[in-house]
Here is the input.
Amino acid sequence: MIAASGIALLVAVSNPVAVTLGATGFGLLAVRTGYPAAFGLTAALMLLPLLAGTGARTRRTRTA
Here is the structure.
């Protein structure tokens, strides 16, 4: 189990790392494909979890 101060440290470190990796990945993608294609691919990639979340919500049924 992680103490509350450890969780705060983990969040404080992981957030900038994730932003840096995302920006680097987008930059590499944009260099290879161009900005319009990179933005389009990024938008499509962001839609996948949204669509998956919507599908998961509609499959739940109440048993009570």
Remarks:
- Residues 1-63 form one domain.
